[in-house]
Amino acid sequence: MRATGRFAPSPTGPLHAGSLVAALASWLDVRARGDRARWLIRIEDADTERCLPGMGAHILQQLADCALLPDEPPEWQTQRTARYEAALATLQARGLAYPCGCSRKDIDLALARLGHTHERHGERVYPGTCRDGLHGKPARAWRFATHRMPGGELQWTDRRLGPQQQDVQREVGDFVLRRADGPWAYQLAVVVDDAEQGVTDVVRGEDLADNTARQILLQQALGLPTPSYLHTPLVRGADGDKLSKQNGATAIDTATPAAALAALDTAARALGLRPATAGDCAAALAGWVPEWRDLYNSRPS
């Protein structure tokens, strides 16, 4: 199969230092695999409430300024909703998706009655309240029935982090596939998109590593292939938290070729690559490809 990687930003704000690290890593990973490999860009704008008008085009321009150009025209999730509808219908037909009427407060109260407290940044492990029906409540979401999948630890190998495992039923519970008000959940959309686009190698930020087990379960339920995974180091802010749009991360400056090269160089150092010695982005990228191959492509995927 032709090696295919992708960068899939959400257009909720411009690229910042952390997102450029993920973009650069995914581009290098594909280029290190030879001339036939493909690098794709997918604008993940399915959650239209959070996306900003014109931001997808702005991100594409930032990437182009850094010479990070896709091998095919970019895809947009808002143009792919029929595929998500079909995937949800398949899960419903197989008894692997059910409607849920619980609000976040309902879940917190149910967990409190079970003696569980929700920690900051922690998962709300869904207690299965609506597995046997809505009990007169209106549906708020569709959930994936993890309890109907084979139980126990799901194991896989991350090309950077090494052996990983997670018991999704115990540590996450039945997770959301779609909210009743329309937006598709990241888990379902990314699984459908990666399979449809033939993605063989997912390279993304380490903050998304915890999502991998859920996505593998969905791939198994839908009969889709599982790509290899590599999660890159996080860029952190002064407070120690992951640098993100939510905590005010500054947009990268790509207004001039020199500024774009400086942004790329910073991203490369975060990935453990040597500082750029070339005078432009394209030449710097070419110089990092063999380094990336030595660092990661010899590891099991």
Automatic annotation (TrEMBL):
Query: Where does this protein hold Zn(2+)?
Result: C100, C102, Y126, C130
Give the EC number(s) under which this enzyme is classified.
6.1.1.-
Q: Which residues bind ATP?
A: K245
Query: Under the cellular component aspect of Gene Ontology, which terms does the record hold?
Result: cytosol
What is this enzyme's class at the first EC digit?
A: ligase
Q: Name one Pfam family in it.
A: tRNA-synt_1c
* 'KMSKS' region, short sequence motif: residues: 242-246
State the free-text cofactor note.
Answer: Binds 1 zinc ion per subunit.
GO molecular-function term, one example from the UniProt record = zinc ion binding
Q: State the InterPro entries in the record.
A: Glu-Q_tRNA(Asp)_Synthase, Glu/Gln-tRNA-synth, Glu/Gln-tRNA-synth_Ib_cat-dom, GluQ/Sye, Rossmann-like_a/b/a_fold
Biological process (GO) annotations?
glutamyl-tRNA aminoacylation; tRNA modification
Could you tell me which residue ranges the Glutamyl/glutaminyl-tRNA synthetase class Ib catalytic domain spans? 6-253
Known cofactor(s): Zn(2+)
Q: Where is this motif: 'HIGH' region?
A: 9-19
Give the keywords, sorted. Aminoacyl-tRNA synthetase, ATP-binding, Ligase, Metal-binding, Nucleotide-binding, Protein biosynthesis, Zinc
Listed binding positions for L-glutamate are: R6, F7, A8, P9, S10, E44, Y186, R204
Q: What does this protein do?
A: Catalyzes the tRNA-independent activation of glutamate in presence of ATP and the subsequent transfer of glutamate onto a tRNA(Asp). Glutamate is transferred on the 2-amino-5-(4,5-dihydroxy-2-cyclopenten-1-yl) moiety of the queuosine in the wobble position of the QUC anticodon.
Which NCBIfam families has this protein been placed in?
PRK05710.1-2, PRK05710.1-3, PRK05710.1-4, queuosine_YadB
Question: Family per UniProt?
Answer: Belongs to the class-I aminoacyl-tRNA synthetase family. GluQ subfamily.
User: Under what name is this protein listed?
Assistant: Glutamyl-Q tRNA(Asp) synthetase
The organism named in the record is Acidovorax cavernicola
Q: Which gene encodes it?
A: gluQ
